[in-house]
Amino acid sequence: TLSYIPYNGHYLPAVKGIRENIERGDEFVSRPDDIWICCYAKSGTHWLWEIVHMLLGNSTDYTSKPKETTQFDFHDAASFTNLPSPRVFNCALWWHQLPRDVIQKKSKILHCMRNPKDVAVSYYLHTKELHSVYQYSGSWEGWVQLFTEGKVVRGSWFDYEMEWSKEGGKDENVLTLMYEDLKKDLVSEIKVIAHFLGVSLPESRYLEMADRCSFGTMKQCKQMSEMENKIMYRKGQVGDWKNWFTVTQNEKFDAVYKAWLESGGPAMCFG
Ligand code: A3P
Would you indicate the residue range of the signal peptide (predicted)? Predict the structure, then answer.
């Protein structure tokens, strides 16, 4: 069993007021220069959060505010009114759960996808660590089952990414990134993000930022709580799933993934 808040057939984390916060999104007044980082759980939100702040501020310092301060569904929308521009929001919301004004005002949205097998592992450990929120005391085996069936908080990875691809994919204000690409060549991806945000900096600056945002440096140098360090900057690897999935679990997962691809899921390269 897993603790969650049901919402229109969806699963939200058991955070007080979360349903109301999403509903009040209708009243949210977006600004064209707002920037949104929207990713399924454990797909690179913290990483992008630092990169975006560095680019906007032409800085190699880590943000001093935790990303939760502008996690949209954790707060009443009205509380963001006094923030100075450009505001950087983050969330794990589905496309249809985003405040409509974000789309209408054409705010820029960064969306990062990650190999769902690595997402499943990272999310399992996250859920176990944050037991007070998720109340999950099941096994890895049970988790793979729940994840594959989409019965985890934030819902089905497959449906989530399908919706983002179909709806967000055709919107020029959405930049879709791959976690694995960031791992492979962070400097190039930082440049892609900079271009998307309309930021232009000297080459050396992008190199410095990539260095500061490498996993090892962030884990070691960014000031954060022990818990955050443990679950938000855990291992940062591509392919950790191989240490977790049994052959049978992998075969079952592959079958679901293949069916998803055949029904229009976006092709992904896992590096
Ligand atoms: P792991 O648990 O596999 O290590 P999110 O921020 O969306 O919750 O995603 C968290 C995942 O991104 C964690 O995955 C975390 O380690 C990884 N991550 C965070 N910073 C990273 C970085 N600089 N480079 C690579 N991975 C990073």
Answer: none
Q: What is the DSSP letter of 82?
A: T
Which pLDDT belongs to residue 271? 57
Continuous H helices in 83-185: 100-104, 116-129, 131-134, 140-149, 157-163, 179-184
- Minimum CA distance residue for ligand 1 atom 10: 42
What pLDDT, in 10s, does the model give residues 226-261?
A: 999 999 999 999 999 999 999 999 999 999 999 999
Ligand 1: residue whose CA is nearest its atom 15: 233
pTM > 0.90: yes
Torsion of CA 107, 112, 113, 119, to 10 degrees: -120
Closest-lying ligand 1 atom to the alpha carbon of residue 112? 7
Q: Residue 31: phi, psi to the nearest 5?
A: -120, 145
Q: Please write the tens of the pLDDT for every residue from 171-192.
A: 899 999 999 999 999 999 999 9
Cβ atoms 211, 217 nearer than 8 A = yes
How many angstroms separate the CA atoms of 106 and 108, rounded? 6
Q: Find the 81 Cα to ligand 1 centroid distance in Å.
A: 29
- Residue 42: its H or E element: none
- Complex-level ipTM: 0.99
Residue 22 CA: distances (Å) to CA of 7, 96, 264: 10, 11, 28
List the beta bridge partners of residue 88: 35
